[in-house]
Hints:
Layout: E1 28-38, H1 40-51, E2 56-62, H2 74-80, H3 91-104, E3 117-121, H4 132-141, E4 150-153, E5 162-164, E6 180-182, H5 187-196, E7 209-214, H6 215-218, E8 229-234, H7 236-239, E9 243-250, H8 257-260, H9 263-267, H10 270-277, E10 279-283, H11 316-329
Parallel strand pairs: 1-2, 1-9, 2-3, 3-4, 5-6, 9-10
Antiparallel strand pairs: 7-8, 8-10
Amino acid sequence: MRLSRLAYLTTAVLSLPLQAAEALPSLKLDDAITLSGLSSGGYMAGQYHLAFAEQVNGVAMLAAGPVYCAQNSLGLALEHCFNKATSAPDMASINAYIKQQQSLGTLAPAEALAGDKVWIFHGTKDATVYPALSATLHQQYQQWLNADNIVLVNDHAFGHTFPTDRTDLGRCDVSEAPYLASCGYDAAGALLQHLLGEVKPKTGHTTGQLLAINQHQLAPAAADTLAQTGYLYVPQSCTNGQSCRLHVSFHGCKQNADSVGEAFVSGTGLNNYADTNQLVVFYPQTSASSINPFNPNACWDWWGYTGPDYATRNGRQLQAVQQLVNALRQR
């Protein structure tokens, strides 16, 4: 695959503007992809899975609730999909909407989900998204997948964070930027193990390239709802022409590169596993906005700020990410 339109540079300092436009090395990417995301990124990963299941083999969702939990309402999002112990999403209405959209073709057909793998994680000390919502998400997925294909991990006393086995980060029982913590738990390895099957041990230090890409050039739908710059981690083996898989990782609110620099796109451990498992990792990026749309924390749209179709194939962000994925997979 040759993407002459792709602008990139190695991102030693992500706060610097793009300095050059060069061609991405030719990549041989498998047709099927996997997904993961934290918080709003977890909600977004579930939405992408249901919208484009034909191209997805598995999804990992951390600190998130059921797909379409907010039902196109910020009020419902705050009342039932966020941090309240009284959270009680109307699952009958939610699942009826999803079934209707599947029948209309604005979501993938239910049978496209059947063989996929799902990994769900939630810390018991999460004060941002109520932990019991992950159990609701787990129950929701049981209507589409064999129970053996779904893993729910909800017995760790962690806060609202992406847990790692690194020792140089903050405490795991608190929720603070960059929402990565030293937990003695390797979430990246656990989720990849479930989604991909047997994975090789990760590298101690990454050896590939972290590239900045121009999302607006690659995807027409990205211009009005995503940041101009997204990030792509490419292992040396993939640069050298070996066949590789694509994994899409969605950041959480206040976890985009404009907010936390390269912390998320280089710090979860996903890139270390990518080096040893021929895995390209794409980190799409949102942008914060104070008006039209109102998204001051650079969240992914899981409640409808980009429009009522946000959780379907017609959603502006879902269209943008799918265009980006397809551009990266072009031969």
